[in-house]
Target: DUF1178 family protein
Amino acid sequence: MIRYDLICEAGHDFDGWFRDAAAFDKALAAGAVSCTACGSEKVVKALMAPAVATARKRQQAQDKLAALKVAAPDPRQVALSEMLRQVRAHVEATADYVGDRFAEEARKMHYGETEAHGIYGEASPAEAHALAEEGIEVHPLPRLPEEGN
Model:
């Protein structure tokens, strides 16, 4: 693929990607190349310098990549992740895990069939919505960053 810097008769700069020079010429002749700003089909290739990968440029690119790999995470993100871990740990330490019986157990407590106490488990979105419509307060446990990996 070749990327051409292009310019229209109104002076708008834009770029286009083509399989090769012949593909550009064919698309231009067919009126398939137009300015992204004004729609003009009177387009020419702008003067471009070739992209030559020198040793210095390669080293600069490697240095930038290395800097990205060792960049420290945002301290606010680290603090938020730690708070989410603490909330999750507290719930798991102080509440009973009821698995997929969560909605059933929450209803029993809400309607006084069992003693109210902390529970956690799984509920489908439909079950959670139904609980909310019945006035039963439920909250999702926060997902930890490592659970998405």
